[in-house]
Write the structure tokens for this entry.
Amino acid sequence: MGNTETKVGSSRRDRPSGKQSRKGMGALCAMPIVPEPQLPPDIGSGRLSLIRPHLHKWVNGTVLRYYFFDRDSDGEMVQFEDGTTEWRSWVGSGVEMDVVRNAFRQWKALGIGLEFVEVDSRDEAEVRIGFMDGDGAWSYLGRQILDIPADQRTMNFGWDITNDIDTAIHEIGHTIGMSHEHQNPNSGIVWDEEAVYAALAAPPNKWPREKTYYNIIRKIPAETIEGSVWDPNSIMHYPFEAGLILQPEEYRSGLNPTPGFSQRDKDWVRAFYPAIAADEYEELRPMQSQSLAVMNGQQRNFVIRPTATRYYNICTFGASDTVMVLFENENGDLRYRTGDDDSGEDRNAQFRVKLLRNHKYVLRVRLNYADRADETAVMIW
Ligand SMILES: [Zn+2]
């Protein structure tokens, strides 16, 4: 992605009409191709299976700020095969922005611990949303968006989503760390691969083979999947026309997920990002270690109220893989300060950070893996 000055577009007439089109494959989400982070090769498979599902996901309670591009200069010049060029804006219509806002509300309404807040500055937004026509619908996966420069999109809607909130819900699903469900290695799907490549090479998608491979044919590594069950009704599953799926046989005539969230979508997101009750926050005081004492994959939440303005060290102890993130509480608004993730490494998550007297901070520690959870702790000093 990126605001390269020119790139080869297809034709001006391509206006995909939404994923529900009945004949042929409708326009589909295409995630940007990003290499998976490398983990040390000597990690055992048990440990790997506990780290992998968390690599792209947020600590629970994270406030994700989203922003809609709004300047005349926000857009890209596209070049067509006939050599002509055209300016394509990233700025959306009020109606389409409302669809996206509503999609964020629908995720939150499931009762999850993540927060979504709209902001009017790209510089304080983790999620930056464009509506560039013809550029497809896509989002980066979870924490990948932190690597995208502030003047770049992390999410795009390339066709009119006025009546297509499911596409907005689907892209937000990627932003919170969900992969494509039809790439679940447990699906048992056997593709007619050449038919799939041909279907996606046709309008409105016009995908090159590598995009089709990355978004459909490729199986997500088994160790990144929680649970073993395939959910063909997931909001993260594409519809498929007849003739693309060879197995399971019942889908040879096509697969159409039911609209909206499936029950498994709801169950998964509530389990991974449960609501956080006020009494789950314990105070973390200097030099008093707190045992993490949670199961692998679970999270502890602490408040820190410094009595002196100075630099502090915050560190986890014990053989563990943890994601540790510090937020400052500004009148109830949690602002990201710093974070560390030691997953797959032989060190502990830690940072040194200046904290201000009489300010309030929240520390979230997600324990991905520990040899012995009861010997894992966090301390500030
Ligand atoms: Zn997608």
In short: The radius of gyration is 22 Å.
